[in-house]
TrEMBL record:
Subcellular location: Membrane
Record's bilayer topology term: Single-pass type II membrane protein
UniProt entry keywords in alphabetical sequence: Glycosyltransferase, Signal-anchor, Transferase, Transmembrane
Gene Ontology CC entries for this record: Golgi apparatus; membrane
Main location: membrane
A GO MF term: alpha-1,2-mannosyltransferase activity
Protein's UniProt name: Glycosyltransferase family 15 protein
Organism of provenance: [Candida] arabinofermentans NRRL YB-2248
Glycosyltransferase is among the record's keywords: yes
Matches recorded under Pfam families: Glyco_transf_15
Family membership: Belongs to the glycosyltransferase 15 family.
Amino acid sequence: HDMIFGFVNAPAESIQSAPSLFKNYKTFMQLNNELLIDNSTTLNEFILDSNTNDYTNCNFDSNFEIVNLEFYKSKEYKQLYDFMDDTNGFFYERWTDYSIKTLAISTFVPKDKIFWLDSTGYHDALDRISCPYNLQTKLDYKCYCNDKNDYSFSRYSCMRRFFDIMEFELPEDVPLEIPKYKGIAKYKRLKIRDPTENPFEDNYIKNNQKFVKKFM
């Protein structure tokens, strides 16, 4: 099919890590107005708050993505990337690859060519988990996870904003209101001391055994 970009997570980035990112993006768009397409057909609202005309800090995480590489070779993407690179924000601030990708995708890709990769069971080193809320979905896909730890629709994610823009209904059993958390979530990077160890594989085996014992 002709889809262009698929993603799993939509994290909200800290503005402190990239204070000049969106300002430089807006400068680029003012200088290259001819590249704009109809905002009503794009995900421009994903990155731009229409009420404040400011950056939403929303991103598409690039750790797990499916993309038509022709987009990254396109004139629009190359021009935006080169302009942002020339501002040296990658060096003097904490700009990420997915920040630039998100700005480009939200600006130049029709929103009906963008899709969410649901039911992947994705779990990264920051402990961000994509866990289905619906029990039957868990059984169908053999997921062993706690939906209370789901990152996709948490307060730290922009997934709900994506669903609002796309006019999608929330997946079954996902709370309409963002769940309240006590304290601040702490994501710790996994430290692997022995390079021969594979904790992900060990955890998978243990979790699979628990799943089989509980549901099979």
